[in-house]
Design goal:
Layout: H1 12-21, E1 27-28, E2 31-32, H2 36-40, H3 46-57, H4 62-72, H5 76-83, E3 97-102, E4 123-127, E5 138-143, E6 149-152, E7 158-160, H6 176-181, H7 186-194, H8 196-206, H9 218-226, E8 233-238, H10 247-254, H11 256-270, E9 274-279, H12 284-299, E10 307-312, H13 322-330, E11 353-357, H14 358-362, H15 364-370, H16 372-376, E12 386-393, E13 399-404, H17 409-415, E14 423-428, E15 434-436, H18 447-452, E16 461-466, H19 471-485, H20 491-506, H21 514-527, H22 531-535, H23 538-545
Parallel strand pairs: 3-4, 7-13, 8-9, 8-11, 9-10, 12-16
Antiparallel strand pairs: 1-2, 3-5, 5-6, 12-13, 14-15, 14-16
Bound molecules: flavin mononucleotide (FMN) and iron/sulfur cluster.
Length: 549
């Protein structure tokens, strides 16, 4: 794209959409009076402005990009770099309706790819996992003028509830009154009664560990942020894009007030004055329910001084990585930052930041109400509480299953009605996880047992594959996922993910080049900035070890 387009003007509609979000740089007698730092200080409006134009017009024209740049004083080349980073933003003209058909590992096995050839009013493209594996196959329809929608073809999914999911399917997700009738916002009242420091102490006693993948102790993270100077931020990570993962969607769609209550308690405990909920762009229903729940809670005066902003992602897996997510909110490309500094010291806008996964947060009201010790009595000393698992693939009853940590993988598979067909492999932990055999059915589902056996629970993915499945095709799709989603900052990851995909492709007709994969894996683990590069070869390595490819 030619970036010399300073003369391109927006249409009247584009100008109006942008004006709703960003004031023009004021000028008086030809002199800028609110430009410079004041205008650049609004850089965080860049992605929302691009998204607003995309949503209204179906693409972002040069004139619209130019108008946004003029108002924010962002160089057009930089704004183009941001716009082109995201799959849901197009800088080329597109039809008013674009259908994103999931061709990822769960959907491609049950006719997802056939949907590509079905007639559609607009453009049809493929997309990585849409987080609907429990109701596969799925597609996401992006419409100019709004009304984005997810369409699924599978039967309704199972929700096996414990304390965290107890209201899903039982509470009206649009009703604050119903939520309160079922115990909602009692945790917040209790938190306010016992005080911020006591809440952090209970969370530490509970030994709650993060459910977003890294299993970091939540209380330790909170204490670190609470001890840093204000202003502080809280971010709820609802970007959920790990292939095979859909639990956070089930929570946000089914019990959105629970997320708002948990965020409010967390912000109170850590002294954060503003919170963001970063929801993946392909979750329109979760976004609207969370937004409505937040507005109703604010209206009822339950949020106090806390400001909460729902921020919609625009289609980039890497933005789930915490520092990439900060860059995304700040209006930069969603590229991970070097750590240290860690988010607790310098996170969003360079300020101390608590970032937690949706599932991690919804544990908080229970901990506050029942006490940390009672919470820690469930599970094992290292892995306390219950955990949400995303069961999909060749199982009798796919869905979201909440079980006590420490029960076995076999228990979980049994709860889901057992395997459909003869099992060949189970994907544990997502695309960043591992294939395992039926030997692992006896493994207790705890962080320590997973670690001891060289695997991970990751984001709670348990996807089963029976003997009829084309495992080479599935492993290649995972390799392509990492090739496509690498942000490209680190050479080992940018090049390594391409080379791995090529090696897997060649292995269709010849033995896979094991030394090459081992070399690439080592280089990516040693020299990548973020977890994507560290884990990109794990699935391929485990597939080779099991003789699947
Ligand atoms: C490539 C990549 C993608 C990630 N995606 C997510 C995600 O979608 N949701 C999430 O909660 N954490 C994700 N994480 C983990 C976050 O960086 C971070 O550890 C997490 O949000 C912390 O919350 P927790 O302590 O509650 O788990 C991802 C990490 C990496 C490396
Ligand atoms: S490891 Fe990969 S995804 Fe992560 S920062 Fe480096 S290039 Fe980007």
């Amino acid at each position: 794209m030619d970036l010399r387009f300073m003369a391109d003007e927006p249409s009247a509609v584009e100008r109006a959409v942008i004006a709703r979000l960003i004031d023009p740089v004021e000028s008086r007698n030809g002199q800028v009076v609110r430009g410079g730092h004041a205008a650049r200080g609004h850089r965080h409006l860049l992605l929302p402005a691009l998204a607003a134009v995309q949503s209204e017009l179906g693409w972002v024209s040069r004139g619209a990009l130019n108008e946004i740049c003029r108002r924010l004083l962002v160089p057009p080349a930089e704004a183009y770099g941001v716009a082109s980073f995201y799959a849901l933003i197009s800088t080329d003209p597109r039809p008013a309706e674009v259908t994103h058909v999931c061709d990822d590992i769960a959907c491609r096995q049950v006719g997802g790819l056939d949907l590509l050839s079905q007639p559609s009013g607009g453009e049809v493209v493929t997309t990585p996992c849409l987080g609907q594996c429990d109701r596969r196959p799925a597609m996401f329809v992006q419409r100019a003028g709004g009304q984005d929608e997810v369409l699924v073809s599978g039967p309704p999914a199972t929700v096996h509830a414990g304390p965290l999911l107890r209201r899903v399917g039982k509470v009206d997700p649009s009703s604050l009154a119903d939520f309160r009738k079922q115990g909602g916002f009692e945790g917040l009242r209790r938190a306010q009664d016992i005080g911020a420091e006591a809440v952090v102490a209970e969370v530490k006693k509970a030994a709650l560990k993060g459910r977003g993948g890294a299993a970091f102790p939540t209380g330790v993270k909170w204490e670190a942020v609470a001890n840093e100077p204000a202003p502080r931020y809280l971010v709820c990570n609802a970007d959920e894009s790990e292939p095979g993962t859909f639990k956070d969607r089930v929570v946000m769609e089914g019990d959105p007030f629970a997320v708002i209550e948990a965020i409010t308690i967390a912000a109170f405990a850590t002294g954060c004055e503003k919170a963001y909920i970063y929801v993946r762009g392909e979750y329109p229903l979760a976004t609207s329910r969370i937004t409505a729940a937040m507005a109703a809670s604010r209206e009822a005066g339950l949020l106090g001084e806390l400001e909460i902003e729902v921020f919609r992602g625009q289609g980039a897996y890497i933005c789930g990585e915490e520092t990439a997510l900060f860059n995304s909110i700040e209006g930069f490309r969603g590229e991970p930052r070097q750590k240290p500094p860690f988010p607790a010291q310098a996170g969003l806008f360079g300020r101390p930041t608590v970032i937690n996964n949706v599932e991690t947060l919804i544990n908080i009201p229970e901990i506050v109400l029942g006490g940390g010790d009672a919470y820690a009595s469930v599970g094992t000393p290292d892995s306390t509480g219950t955990r949400l698992f995303c069961l999909s693939g060749d199982l009798a009853r796919p869905g979201t299953y909440e079980i006590e940590m420490g029960r076995t993988l076999g228990d979980l598979v049994e709860l889901a009605g057992g395997f459909a067909g003869e099992p060949k492999a189970i994907l544990l932990g997502g695309a960043a996880g591992f294939f395992v055999s039926s030997d692992y059915l006896s493994m207790p589902l705890t962080f320590e047992d997973a670690r001891a056996r060289g695997v991970t629970l990751g984001s709670g993915v348990v996807m089963a594959f029976n003997h009829d499945r084309d495992m080479h095709d599935i492993v290649r799709r995972v390799a392509r996922f990492f090739r496509d989603e690498s942000c490209g900052q680190c050479v080992p990851c940018r090049v390594g993910t391409v080379r791995i995909e090529e090696a897997v492709a060649r292995a269709r007709s010849a033995p896979i080049d094991r030394p090459l994969i081992a070399d690439l894996d080592r280089a990516m683990k040693d020299a990548s900035i973020c977890g994507l590069g560290h884990t990109a070869a794990s699935v391929v390595q485990s597939a080779m070890a099991m003789g699947l490819i």
